Amino acid sequence: MKLSAISKTEYLAMFQEYLERTLREGSFALEDAMLYATVDGGKRIRPMLVRLGALAVGDALCSDALALAYAVELVHSYSLVHDDLPAMDNDDYRRGKLSVHKKYGEANGVLTGDALLTEAARHLFKIAKGKGECFVNAAEEILTGAGKMVDGQVKDLAGCKTRDEYLEMYSQKTGALIVASMRAGARLAGADERALESVSAYARHLGLAFQLADDLLDDDGEPSIINVIGREETERLLAFETSEAVKCARLLKNADELVDFAEYLAARKN
Amino acid sequence: MKLSAISKTEYLAMFQEYLERTLREGSFALEDAMLYATVDGGKRIRPMLVRLGALAVGDALCSDALALAYAVELVHSYSLVHDDLPAMDNDDYRRGKLSVHKKYGEANGVLTGDALLTEAARHLFKIAKGKGECFVNAAEEILTGAGKMVDGQVKDLAGCKTRDEYLEMYSQKTGALIVASMRAGARLAGADERALESVSAYARHLGLAFQLADDLLDDDGEPSIINVIGREETERLLAFETSEAVKCARLLKNADELVDFAEYLAARKN
């Protein structure tokens, strides 16, 4: 079935089913922790962006999009599990429940992250067999984004002092996987370089807006760009990045949904 | 160039060059730590097994084998970096020098492992473009082995009590990536299922023998199968697994080198 034939809501329901079923089929030693880290959490922004990336340039098979969405959500989840570790952000809670390492122990926290990242890549190779170049290109986008995300994490731990340092770090730590999700969807739909660049431009603004909205929601004194430029300027920057994303959306197919998504992310309350 | 046209020594030199060059080209934030964890360490057993796996059933392009070898060595290296973390084995030294987290800090220890695993998968997708089914199949073997390795790590942390529990854990924690390396090489050379099974049988015995030899070399009271069955029985089991590997080798191409490798691993002093 093609993505264009199903609604956003149907896609999300299919994604949830795909995620749970595929993780259970893996018979992992850490199955419980892997499900705990992925199944009932999150806004599924990256899986949504895989779909939107494909529809922004054309269309693709829903089953292929779901495989990419599964991988990118696992990559995102592994990064949260490792982020929460005592050696990193040392967070006891995530999405209103105990973080993985608090619930399953610190060693299993490390290993659950490892298992999720490994499974993301394994699944992509499994699905890549018999597919054409487009799927392999799309899978490469996800791993490339995952690599940049680690670079961003390193910058975050090292600490940022200026507005530009924060924006550069955000573009990697948060933005890279958001851009990769859109590009993966677009690659799947066979986008050429020009279309890819338009998709990337939208996603870069979206990713930055998403992180700024996060900072404004979580403004609890933890280091963020708000400490450098203040709430008002952060709100102004969020509005600017959102409006830039909207402008980029107008150059793409399925523009109304892309506009809605950018406005939803900017206005969200969690 | 085909693998059959170059010697073992040439292959290892080419691997070393490939590893360093490719890691440096990545411009990773953690480049120093990634090089530290990979470049001057280890016996390169898994890269060797990629080559031997291909030659055991036929032949393959050296450049493709090197890409697989690079990925599997990065997977192996990431597992050591994470193994050494305080939450895991808490080892301050590895291969006679400070472990990654002791040298670069614990957060960077987590992230260096993540970066190595991510880069392994990213590189495989990059190289997979334009290659046939054989390369994708080979890459999938490596990620499948990496997944089983994590399962084995979980079993190791949970602790083993009986001979059979140790053997099962060893077959995953150590064996899975060794089997995967051989199978990846064999897949690259276009092995059919029957040839793959012969290669896997050799590698399973080899992997077990390798771990038993490790236990005998490192017998420092840390939990190992020696605590359960004693040194003498462990030595007997090592000799048995090595002789089984040699028997399996006789059914494969390039048998003499496979026999030599099994005997080298059993007799090694480090």
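qc> Chain A touches chain B through 48 residues (CB under 8 Å).
qc> done
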